[in-house]
Amino acid sequence: MNPPATNPAAQAAAAGAPSTTGSTATRVLGVISLVGIAAVAVFGLLISPPDAELGETIRILYLHVPTVSSAYLAFVVTAVASVAYLWKRTEFWDLLAASSAEIGVLFFALTIFDGMMWGKVTWGVFWRWEPRLVTTTVLLLTYIGYLVVRSIPSDPRTRGTLSAAIGIMAVVNIPITHKAVDWWRGLHQGGTVLGTVDPEMSGTQLFSTYLALTVFMVLFVWLLIHRFRVAWLAERAADAGISEAISRRRHEATLGGGSVGGVNP
Amino acid sequence: MDELRRVARAAQLVAAKDLRIERRTKVATAQMLPFALLVLLLFAFALDPDRGVLAEATAGLFWTTVLFTAVLAIQRSFAVELSNGVLDSLRLSGLSVPGIFLGKVAALFVQLAVLEVVLGLGVAVLYDAQLGGWALLVVVALAATTGICAAGAAYGLLAARLRQGSALLPLLLLPLLAPVLIAATRGSDVALGRETGGGWSWAALLGVFAVAYLGLGAALYGPLMDET
């Protein structure tokens, strides 16, 4: 009896899972994302004129608006997948929720970073108690808690249930936190496009903003599919690892004349 | 109607159980009240008590102390459930699950309400705070405490289900309660006459938070209790 392969990709393949996270669809999405990001850079940095009020700093908004919008989309996906997990109890929804939350945290961290860069240029300091920055930071901490819970070793079903509960409760807190922080800092902003785009934008500024939004949505989907597939393969590799360990113990038991688990007396 | 009666009966039983345990052991009381008063003193050490900073920031310091102390109360509330498999017995008892959740919320509410009264006296004496605006103050305190207890009861059970869960509880709970801290502080500031206008809007926001987390907690308690 030959012991099974130890390579994770081979284990995953043996368990019936693909050994790569790429597919034709993700390659197309990847090319669109990369070309789109290059186009956003050209429009945002070269073609779009400086703003009358914000000056050159408006170029940071071409990154800020799409990262924060993608993060919110990611957290909504996490919440929907969490509800679906509690209903259907399938691994697909659990891993989708977790993958989306990870990307949301990444985009939120980017949002805080570019917000602080904007603050340094505009106010001369990295941090001011600006409502959007505060809200983003509080929510980032909430979702870091979600990821910490997922990182604690536990039974997959327990991990899925606990993180699904957090994913649902956290998303309900988003509008409440927004409202509290906005009132706290005296922000009573009027109507905006998607809540973040200045409605007075026009021409190449508006085009650049919507281009960046579209490109980051595609980027989000691209990253989500890959992250989901990595998570799925990791689960299969873990399953294969358990099967392999059982198989090895049986192999040892056979060689050792029947001593269970290969333990010598 | 029968279902509502079942929920209310379960809530009453669980709340009475928790409060009876607390009355007999006095563990939470012996930890919470001295801790809360200690935090009030620590704030005075950190901020210069002679410059009026404490009186200025009374509402914020009060609610920050309540939040920190609430974490202790929540940890204690679920520590008693974990020993001897009480949580599993509760699940098997056939009691209404939303009722169990509401019972935990009610018991925590009573403990935090007592704490807030003592802390209120504490800030009046130690920080020379002038209490007033009672109607708004009481509504803000009721709504904020309900929200803290609802979110706390849900996250307390969740943390209890995890290894190292008690250490994680503050990380999970405090960011979630950030809007409660903001709204309760501002609402209390208006009630105490330190800010003008908008006090009832803050109370309404606290009410929305409380209702949202009472609903979510009641809905999610079943799946959370089923985990081992």
- The portion of residues assigned to helices of chain B is over 70%
Largest pleated sheet of chain B: none
Overall form of chain B: globular
| Helicity level of chain A | over 70%
Number of helices of chain B: 10
| Named CATH architecture of chain A | Up-down Bundle
CATH class of chain A: Mainly Alpha
SSE string of chain A, helices as H and strands as E: HHHHHHH
Low-confidence stretches of chain B: none
Shape of chain A: globular
Termini separation of chain B comes to 32 Å
The helix/strand order of chain B is: HHHHHHHHHH
Averaged pLDDT of chain A, please?
84
Oligomer: heterodimer
CATH topology of chain A: Four Helix Bundle (Hemerythrin (Met), subunit A)
Rg of chain A, alpha carbons: 24 Å
Low-confidence stretches of chain A: 1-5, 188-195, 259-265
Task: Provide key terms for this protein.
heterodimer; A: 265 residues; 75% helix; 0% strand; disordered N terminus; disordered C terminus; B: 228 residues; mainly alpha; globular
Brief rundown of the structure:
Chain A has 265 residues and is mainly α. Chain A has helices at 8-14, 24-47, 58-88, 91-123, 131-151, 156-184, 203-255. The longest helix of chain A is centred in the last third of the chain and has 53 residues, at 203-255.
